[in-house]
Structure formats: C-alpha cells, structure tokens
Amino acid sequence: MTVPFSHAMVLAAGLGLRMRPITLTVPKPLVAVAGRTMLDRAIDALDAAGVTRIVVNCHWLGEKIRDHLAGRPDIALSPEDELLETGGGVTRALPLLGDAPFFVVNADILWTEGAVPALERLRAAWEDERMDALLLLHPTTTAVGHDGPGDFTLDSDGLPHRRGNAAVAPYLFTGVQILHPRLFEAAPEGRFSLNVLYDRALSHGRLAAIVHDGGWFHVGTPEALPSVEARLRA
C-alpha cells in the first residue's frame, strides 16, 4: 500500500504560560525565533515534505493565528472553545485529516535537519501494517531547552518503552510524529492527552519510534530565546 502523507496537523492551541509576558499578547506559535515564527517553521517543514492539507488548531489568541494564516487555502483551522489537549485536539480535527496516516507537529518546538529531513525519515520508516503511531525521539543529552528526565528507552529491536520507574531515560519525544486514524478508535471524549493512545498502542506493539539525527530545541521561557536563536543561527 502506498501512503500519500498528504495531510498534517500542527498543534498550536496552548496557552504558553511559561512564555509570559510575551504570550499575553502573542500566541506562543507566533513568537519569532531567529526571524521566523515557530508556527511558520513547522509549516515550512510540512510544505517541504509535500503535504498539501494542513490543519492548525487554536485557542489562546486564536484570531491572531487565523489572521496570520489568511491567504493559505491549503490550511484549515480547528478552533477550540475549551482546550482539548493533544489527544482531544487531534480527535476533533480528524474529519479534516482524511483516512490515511498523517503528520502531527507541535508548534512550540524547533528542529534542524540531519542528513535527511526528519519528516522524510519518518515517512520512510512508516510500516502501515504494524504501526498506529511513529514518534520522532531525540537524545536527552543534546536537546536544547529541555531539563526533564526523558520519556523513552529503545530496546534492541528499536521499539520504544516508557521510562517507568527509572530516574532518567535516554530519549525525549520531540513533538513530531505520524499517526493513523485507527489510533483514535474508541478514544476518550473531550480533553485528553495523546499519551493515553500511545500507551494503548504500546501495549499492542503498535507504537514505533526513530531517533532524530539533527538538532532539537524547546523554547520554554523568554530567557531561553537568545540562546536558542544563537544556536539556530550557528
């Protein structure tokens, strides 16, 4: 089966509380980093990957995201009156995303490419008959702006496993992934995290992952902006 990967979603509905006071007047996805907004950087990567239909959810200062994307007929908005988190947000947008696997990208992270663009690597690694979700991971030791303990380990077959009770894990989830609509069968209603569906897929052996070979950046606070911009420009 040939998978077109023509559709994608950008998650852009967060409140950006840690980025205040900037995000009191600007939604976090529209914060410029090294001269380009984080939302535009995500859309640039999807455009380069050949995606022809992009859905962007929005909540906080959603009208500014709507105005920013005006004139892009290939982009549809999925407004949320109440925050639905990652799982609820994608679930609401499913009617706009088709019936084939699609990319999902967080609008509050940045990445630089390795030898092959990350979305191309994800597309090449996708195996439709055995995957419901394919996550892009990154080594915690080289992630910029991340101070958490990590999310996943990888076994000898390259399959991801949760950190569990371990103090640290070698890989974090980047916020870049491929999901299949079947992942959302019997999904909870309303607000919920995609982690609920990852864990279900993991229990059935249908969660997969690859490791990013470029750079990855999280801009969590206004104080982090200068160092991330310097790294991007370098």
Write structural notes for this entry.
Helix 3 (85-93) crosses helix 5. This protein starts with 6 loop residues before the first strand and ends with a helix. It has a single domain (7-233), classed as Alpha-Beta Complex (Spore Coat Polysaccharide Biosynthesis Protein SpsA, Chain A). With 234 residues, it is an alpha/beta fold. A 7-stranded mixed sheet has the order 5-4-1-6-11-8-12, sandwiched between helices. It has a two-stranded antiparallel sheet with strand order 2-3. Strands 7-13 form a two-stranded antiparallel ribbon. It has helices at residues 38-48, 62-68, 85-93, 118-125, 194-203, 225-233; strands spanning 7-11, 32-33, 36-37, 53-58, 75-79, 102-106, 109-111, 133-139, 152-154, 160-162, 171-179, 207-211, 216-218. It holds the Pfam family NTP_transf_3. This is Putative Nucleotidyl transferase family protein putative Mannose-1-phosphate guanyltransferase.
